[in-house]
């Protein structure tokens, strides 16, 4: 769909209304999920007066915002419904330290592929359980660099959305505190990452990301250190909570992830094979759930 003047005026109204709402509610940030390059000038204008964060899948939008000094973050390159857009925007902004778990924020989303904004949401994160399942955690990544957390989250959401060879897959990524984590694990298979240099095992290497997608069908977890090095795959997590201590309806991956994060300072990102939901664990509890991406 081509970007029309009518849509442009709607977007302008939506953005300025959201900015005014952010101002009146003393919100710490205005988050805008957008991919359309033709919104650049309007976003730059808004950023002059408000704490604006642009979240995008579009490289051109990212480059322009960064050049103009506007805060901008990449989001997973998958289709997400509006609640998925909101949750990913909040999670990545939290991991970057731009917002906190007790902040008020305003989020703008819409038909991202078409450049149409049509949704404004005010969130009091401390009391918004539909977005943050556990807002009493000070920060999701005390010891984990924001870029690393974002890279793994983006990869997990992509895997959840795409699957492998048309089939859904489940996976666990355990990030940080790897020395203690490894004390509570054992290998289910020969570790496919053993013997390679750290550079060859970096999650930031695009080629390795594709390799991880291939290995995502293997049972067990991926273990990463705080630098983004993949230490192992096909790793069994021994520190599982008992089913009595865990919400009903979630399987062994989630129980194991809750257990390992309750005994270490790690963060676990889990993909449910049955639903495609991505869940983030810290301190033994679910911090956020992001449902499988679908285009609205």
Furnish the topology, listing elements before pairings.
Layout: H1 5-24, E1 29-33, H2 40-47, E2 52-56, H3 59-67, E3 71-74, H4 82-95, E4 104-111, E5 116-124, H5 146-162, E6 171-175, H6 178-183, E7 185-187, H7 206-215, E8 221-224, E9 230-237, H8 252-263, E10 267-271, E11 278-282, E12 285-290
Parallel strand pairs: 1-2, 1-4, 2-3, 6-8
Antiparallel strand pairs: 4-5, 6-10, 7-9, 8-9, 10-11, 11-12
> What share of residues are in beta strands?
15-25%
- Provide the number of structural domains: 2
H/E series: HEHEHEHEEHEHEHEEHEEE
Per CATH, the architecture of the largest domain is 3-Layer(aba) Sandwich
- What is the overall number of helices? 8
CATH topology tier name of the largest domain: YojJ-like (1
Helix content: 25-40%
Protein model, in words:
It is a single chain. The chain is built from eight helices and twelve strands. The chain has 296 residues and is α/β, with parallel strands linked by helices. It folds into two domains: 123 residues, Pyruvate Kinase, Chain: A, domain 1; 145 residues, DNA integrity scanning protein, DisA, N-terminal domain (YojJ-like (1, 3-Layer(aba) Sandwich), CATH 3.40.1700.10. The protein starts with a helix and ends in a 6-residue tail after the last strand.
């Amino acid at each position: 769909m081509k970007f029309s003047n009518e849509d442009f005026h709607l977007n302008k109204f939506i953005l300025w209304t959201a900015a005014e709402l952010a101002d009146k509610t003393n919100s710490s940030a205005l988050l805008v999920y957008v991919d359309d390059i033709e919104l650049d000038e309007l976003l730059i204008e808004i950023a002059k007066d408000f704490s604006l964060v642009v979240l995008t899948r579009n490289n051109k939008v990212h480059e322009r915002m960064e050049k103009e000094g506007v805060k901008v973050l990449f989001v997973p390159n998958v289709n997400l419904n509006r609640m998925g857009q909101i949750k990913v925007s909040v999670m990545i902004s939290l991991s970057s330290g731009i917002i906190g778990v007790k902040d008020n924020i305003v989020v703008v989303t819409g038909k991202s592929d078409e450049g149409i904004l049509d949704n404004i949401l005010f969130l009091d994160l401390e009391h918004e359980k539909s977005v943050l399942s556990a807002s009493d955690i000070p920060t999701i990544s005390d010891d984990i660099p924001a870029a690393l957390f974002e890279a793994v989250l983006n990869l997990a959401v992509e895997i959840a959305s795409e699957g492998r060879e048309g089939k859904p897959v489940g996976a666990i990524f355990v990030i940080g505190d790897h020395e203690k984590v490894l004390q509570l694990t054992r290998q289910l298979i020969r570790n496919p990452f053993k013997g390679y240099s750290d550079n060859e095992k970096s999650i930031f290497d695009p080629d390795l990301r594709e390799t991880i997608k291939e290995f995502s069908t293997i049972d067990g977890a991926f273990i990463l250190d705080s630098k983004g090095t993949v230490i192992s795959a096909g790793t069994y997590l021994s520190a599982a909570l008992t089913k009595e201590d865990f919400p009903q309806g979630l399987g062994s991956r989630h129980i194991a992830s809750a257990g390992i994060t309750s005994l270490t300072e790690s963060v676990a990102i889990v993909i449910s094979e049955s639903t495609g939901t991505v869940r983030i664990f810290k301190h033994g509890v679910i911090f956020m759930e992001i449902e499988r991406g679908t285009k609205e």
